[in-house]
Design goal:
The structure is a single chain. By secondary structure, this protein is mostly beta strands. The chain is built from one helix and four strands; from the N terminus they run E-E-E-H-E. It has a four-stranded parallel beta sheet, with no helix packed on it. The longest helix has 4 residues, at about 60-65. It is globular.
């Protein structure tokens, strides 16, 4: 079984608390050049080792990939520009 892929469109400005809590997502594509706003619980308990794809020359994805608890980087996600 392959984990789902999520695609976040350019109109998405924020993701609320627990937006992807415990989700079995392995890949996220975000098409905004300014990262949608998130909270410290948006990605709580995500699977480890996923990939976040985001536009080159974008801003704000460093928070998403933070290694602080409950951000994607804490769960060993990597960021790749597209």
């Amino acid at each position: 079984c392959t984990a789902p892929v999520i695609k976040l469109g350019t109109g998405l400005s924020s993701i609320e608390d627990y937006g992807f809590q415990s989700a079995k997502i392995s890949t996220i594509y975000s098409y905004r050049t300014v990262a949608p706003g998130i909270t410290s619980t948006t990605f709580e308990y995500m699977i480890t080792g996923g990939t976040l794809y985001y536009p080159a020359d974008s801003t704000g994805y460093d928070l998403w990939l933070s290694t602080e608890k409950e951000y994607l980087g804490y769960n060993n996600w990597t960021g790749v520009t597209m």
